[in-house]
Write the structure tokens for this entry.
Amino acid sequence: MKEFMTFKSGKFYFCDIYDEAKINNLLVRAIVLNETVVDLPILPEMSSHLEPNIMYSSISGTAMIEGNPIIGDDVKRIAEGEDIESYTQKDKQEIKNLIKAYNWLSGVESSGTPFVLTEKIIKELHKIITHDIPHENNVPGQYRNGLVYVGDKAHGGKYTPPKILDDIKNLMNQFIAWINSKEIIAIDPFLRAALAHYHFCLIHPFWDGNGRTARILEALLLQTSNIKYLPKELSNYYYRNVDDYYIAFSKSIKLKKDVTPFIEFMLTASVESLKGIKNSIIYFIRKFTLRDLYTFQRQQKAITKRQFDLLSLLLDNPVNFTLKDLLEKNPFAILYTKVTTQTARRDLKRLTEMGHLTISEDKKYYLNLHVLG
């Protein structure tokens, strides 16, 4: 831990002290899950589908934490050049800035050594994030000189960050030296990224855009440590659990010399997000393998062309359905419009016996993704 005396705000603590009993199990789980995700075989087709979806939803999530209402699907539309009139110009500009920031992030690769964070990088990111966003005081890339309040009573109370420019300049200088120190670089990247996120927000160096900048800095330190997909996905978890996110900050601020609450929250977010990412990749792998299985069984004439088409349709559109749905509702009716009820029933019986379909308690059929185990 490092103490620093400011001119106007008393002692400031750069703290890496935490309750190992609460943190170590979570940290091990995060490390193991990341190693699993890194080792999973993923084809370019899968990666090209997964990565943009994570990015668009993450951009929406990190912006929504700050009150921006634009959802992930609309982030994609904006990224493709569409102007959505139902949103304000400010909200759209925030999203455009974040798209640019995330594209910058995607271009930074792991070098095999810990990433060295600099004030220049932080200021450049802040310029991108707050470019052309109207604000009474904020100047993109420049530290503030004035009083701000962070938080509210509902989330553990208000916090007053250092308020004068000299203190902020000195603290940012100390922050960079500390986060790049041998002591902090030596700890696990998950912990270093969480500490960077927390202490940057504690200093709150800019008038606007501090949260968005902090979350991208955290993502940057994770990504350059060969942690896949998670760096961008975390913002989604933070948004979905935004009350706990703010409370974790407040609890750590009150403890001053113990950052357990925030690190515990960040690692919980990492574990849950990595589990979701792992399941998504496994789902893609299962789909690819099942498609290959269906093709092989069709070539061997173990299934008919219609049965093959039905399985392929369900693979791309996984829904529960009844025999009646098969005969009357699209998209199934396209395959079964000229088929008798008896033939449709026979198809379902055959595919169920082969393990391709399963029947739910409410007598609906659905695709069995685990037919191969």
About this structure: Residues 33 and 342 are 48 Å apart (CA to CA). The mean pLDDT is 95.
